[in-house]
Amino acid sequence: MVDITWIKNTITHLVRSAPENRLIDFGGQPIFDTPLVGVADGDDPLFKEFQKAVSPRHLQPREFLHRISPRSTDLTHVNVIVWLLPFAMEVRRSNRVQNMPSKLYSLARNNGGAIIYNMSLRLSEQMHQRGIAAVSPILTTEYDTFRMPEFTFSSTWSERHVAFVAGLGYFGLNEALITPLGINVRIGSIITNMPIESSSQRNEDYRALCLKDGGDSCGLCMERCPVGAISKSGLDKSKCYSQRKAIRNECLEHYQQELQMLPSPIPISGQRRNRYSLGCALCQCGVPCEGVNPFHYTDRAKTDA
Ligand code: SF4
Ligand code: SF4
Predict the structure, then answer these.
(1) Quick count: other Cβ atoms within 10 Å of Cβ 258?
(2) Which SS3 state, helix, strand or coil, does residue 154 take?
(3) Per the count of CB atoms within 10 A, which of 10, 11, 80, 206 is most buried?
(4) Which ligand is nearest to the CA of 230?
(5) For residue 23, what are the β-bridge partners?
(6) Kind of pairing, strands 185-192 and 177-178?
(7) In this structure, how many other beta carbons lie within 10 angstroms of the beta carbon of residue 238?
(8) Is the pLDDT of residue 234 over 80?
């Protein structure tokens, strides 16, 4: 097994030094704090389950690395390095509002996508220079997002699910991933043939960090959603999508004129082009799991997190 300290340091450096991580429109406010890195075993049987839980088109790490590597590549080991990027406290705080996401959060969410795209590119290059096979799924033509009757909205690679395999978090009632850095994070990943130790130590309960139990003991994300998209049985993806579309229709044009919005090459139904992504995440801000593991949500965390 090899030590991946240099990869962890590289990921941290790429985020901290990225010019895109500073929002000029908000006095240089950083988007993300220090990342957390984990590793999923690319042969973990859970990846096969994602073809039922996420989409039949969900990619399998080994097949994927095999497809994009020269024949001579040693694929004895296949692992997925996953990184969590936590939104900075000021960004999260600004979104503890009602009805519409804050301007700061919307800009951070959008430009955060460009950071993930660019750092995936730079990390792949650095690994290739060291002779390591590595591919970040979001950079490839195999990565796609699409609508399906059975899964509503889906993709060929779910970063949340991959982070779950890496033991980096558990699903909340709102279907976002509750991590040691809280739920308000963005996630990136890269598949590699490096022989590295998996960080996965999963509890069988896939909602182990959620304070819910069907929303009975917490459920604050249900109250935070302005359109009632979250219930005791989980997330209504269609309602959530309609709200995010309404936010986009109302805000995107004037945000593009007013703010330094960065586009990212996002594929939808096989068509990749530069797009903007505003998001919402009111259900991830102003809740006990916002910036910490909710089991560690103390009075101090309420004000600092
Ligand atoms: S707000 Fe409460 S119920 Fe909702 S995901 Fe967070 S811990 Fe779970
Ligand atoms: S992202 Fe917004 S619309 Fe979707 S569930 Fe959360 S609060 Fe509701």
Answers:
(1) 12
(2) strand
(3) 80
(4) 2
(5) 29
(6) unpaired
(7) 12
(8) yes
Structural domain of 256: 5-304
Q: Which among 265, 4, 264, 1 is positioned nearest to 127, based on CA atoms?
A: 4
Confidence grade of residue 214 (pLDDT, cut at 50, 70, 90): low
3-class state of residue 159 by DSSP: helix
* Ligand 2 site, CB within 6 A: 174, 224-225, 227, 229-230, 235, 240, 243, 280-283
Ligand 1, atom 3, residue with closest C-alpha = 219
Instruction: Tell me how far apart the alpha carbons of residues 13 and 241 are, in angstroms, rounded to a whole number.
Output: 34
Q: What is the pLDDT of residues 115-170, one digit of tens each?
A: 999 999 999 999 999 999 999 999 999 998 888 776 677 899 999 999 999 999 99
- Give dist(CA 26, CA 258) in Å, integer: 12
Predicted TM-score (pTM) of this structure: 0.93
Query: Tens of pLDDT along 17-35?
Result: 999 999 999 999 999 999 9
Total domains present in the chain: 1
